[in-house]
Amino acid sequence: MDLKQAMKERHTVRRFKNKPLDEETVRLLEERVRENNEKLGTEIRLVCNDDSAFNAALKLFLAKNAVNYFVLTGEDSEKLEENLGYASADLMLYAQTLGLNTWWVGGTYSRRTIEALNPGKKTLGIVVVGYGEVQGSPHRSKKFSDIAAYEGEMPQWFKDGVEAVLLAPTAVNRQAVRISGKGNEVAMSYARGFLGKADLGICRYFFELGAGKENFTFTETTA
User: Fold this and answer.
1) CA angle centred on 46, ends 128 and 121, rounded to 5°
2) Based on the domain organization, do 119 and 168 belong to the same domain?
3) Do 48 and 154 share a domain, yes or no?
4) What is the rounded distance in angstroms from the CA atom of residue 47 to the CA atom of residue 113?
5) How many helices (H) and strands (E) does the chain have?
6) Helix (H), strand (E), coil (C) string for 117-133
7) For 87-129, how does the pLDDT look when each residue is reduced to its tens digit (9 = 90+)?
8) Alpha carbon of 64 to those of 22, 101, 102, 126, 197: distances in Å?
9) 87 and 25 fall within a common domain
């Protein structure tokens, strides 16, 4: 499975099997984390076999066996949240290619516990990773015309990029993104609000994957 296929098959999963990640899988995930950190200036880390990210009630009813997770963190900067969103998209899809499932968590985890792992850093959220009890199901999605417009005859790469964005996970499934294109130039904006900049980064990653980075240039990405 490649990243484009993973993009189509990835769905949010919140309940996981009691099955640990093997050494080779952990090695591959940590290598992917390292690559993203070096590229984007983030300080994401993978935590394994730790059940302290959620309280007892959540572990019982929602976050079953959610013991492995990426901590989305780094030195605070203007681009940190967007870059963490971008990196998290890559990590979720890469995990899917390894036969794993993921859950992007922005509010229901134990913030005090996770922030204690990275004192002095800004922590945006976590992405739980593991073997899902199920594969999840597609989320409700907006229409193509709700989020995108192109000036002139729309090329296939633009269509593919927008369709990819409609598959992307966003905070509370807002999909509050706007994409406009002209020639080979694309502008993308995301409504301000809870995790808006992170959602912008996720949408930017999905658009690039769907459209092919060689086909266009982003002229603006804002939230």
Assistant:
1) 100
2) no
3) no
4) 12
5) 8, 8
6) CCCCCEEEEEEEEECEC
7) 999 999 999 999 999 999 987 888 888 888 888 899 999 999 9
8) 19, 13, 13, 15, 29
9) yes
Q: Which residue has the tokens 């990275």?
A: 118
> What burial class does residue 44 get, using C-beta atoms within 10 Å of its C-beta: 0-12 exposed, 13-18 middle, 19+ buried?
buried
Q: In what order do the strands lie in the sheet with 148-151?
A: 148-151, 177-182, 185-190, 217-222
Residue 177 φ/ψ, nearest 5 degrees: -110, 150
3-state helix, strand, coil in the chain (%, to 5): 40, 20, 40
Is 138 a member of any domain? no
Among the candidates 96, 130, 164, a domain finishes at 130
User: Are 17 and 59 in a shared domain?
Assistant: yes
Same domain, 110 and 19: yes
Q: What would the pLDDT profile of 171-201 be if each residue is shown by its tens digit? A: 767 889 999 999 999 999 999 888 999 999 9
Closest CA to 209 of 168, 176, 164: 164
How many independent structural domains does the chain possess? 2
Token pair in block for residue 170: 């966003």
One domain, residues 57 and 122: yes
CATH code of the domain containing 119:
3.40.109.10
| DSSP-based three-state secondary structure for 198 | helix
Contact 169, 139 (CB under 8 A): yes
Neighbours of 75 (CB within 10 A): 11
